[in-house]
TrEMBL record:
Signal peptide: none annotated. It is an enzyme of class 6 (ligase). One of its GO terms (biological process) is asparaginyl-tRNA aminoacylation. Its main location: cytoplasm. Homodimer. Residues 130-430 form the Aminoacyl-transfer RNA synthetases class-II family profile domain. Keywords: Aminoacyl-tRNA synthetase, ATP-binding, Cytoplasm, Ligase, Nucleotide-binding, Protein biosynthesis. This is Asparagine--tRNA ligase. Belongs to the class-II aminoacyl-tRNA synthetase family.
Amino acid sequence: MKTTINQVGQFVNQEVTIGAWIANKRSSGKIAFLQLRDGTGFIQGVVVKAEVEEDVFKFAKSITQESSVYITGKVRADERAPSGYELTITAMELIHEAVDYPITPKEHGTEFLMDHRHLWIRSKKQHAVLKIRNEIIRATYEFFNKEGFVKVDPPILTGSAPEGTSELFATKYFDEDAYLSQSGQLYMEAAAMALGRVFSFGPTFRAEKSKTRRHLIEFWMIEPEMAFVEFDENLEIQEQYVSYIAQSVLENCQLELKTLGRNQESLQKIQAPFPRITYDEALAFLHKEGFDDIEWGDDFGSPHETAIANHYDKPVFITHYPTTLKPFYMQPDSKREEVVLCADLIAPEGYGEIIGGSERINNLELLEQRLNEHQLDPKAYEWYAELRKYGSVPHSGFGLGLERTVAWMAGVEHVRETIPFPRLLNRLYP
């Protein structure tokens, strides 16, 4: 019976054949232990000299790391095994012999591993991170489909930018200037006026010369936009969504979380509702904690966000930032014009902002005023302004950064490990 590693539990005490790679091996006299992987998971295969043909045992002892093989053996339940199963091998067939595989079971430097990212993703921990990424993506589609959202794909090449063009990659679109998208939000607002509740999921690009553990040049964003949804309801949808994906990871990625040594207690606490504090309250808290260098109107940096997040055991919303700190499209608070109806969701454990969102301006005159204040070309945003001209309604949205969310839920230090092939300030290879 041909099967895969993640399906062997269906065949206990039966003989199966699996196509696999040799992740690692060791031998102890008359027994060889092979760590096998097939993409769906990892399992240990045991070759006992006395129970197999001599050439099978010889082959097991000599097979090289990352060689590909067909393995035939009997599935045994084993409580000590991470997956709960082990394979007693009876036959092996070589598909391809790997020679001098560069990533050995010893310590390698980060740059070496990044140069060999195309191979590093085969390792157990990187495999676990990418499986958790996949689960977050799966749960994202499930959540928004269940909640009646429509998936819409905004363009990647744009002629304007939601937050100005200073950190965008410019290109030529025949005889026009164009940019790689830093957000699909403006287009998603248009889609919301047609379809009610929409979400996008796609790549975004920031030409930001940052080397922190939270930044990538190319990353993926989930961006919902909702007609007839005001500020408070927007926050409720965000916390329900984040709670949903966290519980999905807990339910469906137990093996991966254990492989990564992730503290699951902190993930279990990610259930709505989340605490909310205003920018003013956050500023007062920071002053109390000894951050005397920050004043009203200053943006929060990583140390500030971490200090605030450490005060809670769930993600925390920081709301009502000064208007001057935020993009042109955010709706001001009617009771206090110098702040906007926005919120950043800060993850615990030092992972920083994972969501930025707001109620959007729905008044044409105010939007035109903001475009002028931000020195943005009104012609480039004419189509966007027309959304306020023809049946404007209150509407809100947010954007969640996938890689930061994966880093947080998987408990990994740097976002470069949360995407298969990261694009960093100094890296466009492989």
